[in-house]
Amino acid sequence: MTFVVGEDCINCKHTDCVEVCPVDCFYEGPNFLVIHPDECIDCALCEPECPVDAIFSEDELPESQQVFLELNAELAEIWPNITEMKDAMPESEEWAGKPNKLALLER
Length: 107
Prior knowledge:
107 residues; globular
């Protein structure tokens, strides 16, 4: 099983989760983070660290977020690994909790 970064991360990209990951399985795109499913050890340390609740256990991923399971796997193969915390995106507070952000995902 793996953890999955969902829609709420788009245009927020907080990296608190990256700091606690013992296996460095996060990858960074322009406005979104993903978890590599083959590297995640299901430790659950990242989930409570996300200030916008964008991380889900695969078995608790809401139906509306299922597309993100595949997106995390796909994008983790092409984006660079991130291992240190960075500042969130400048307008992250304005984007937090807004629905229907998938179209804004930058590859």
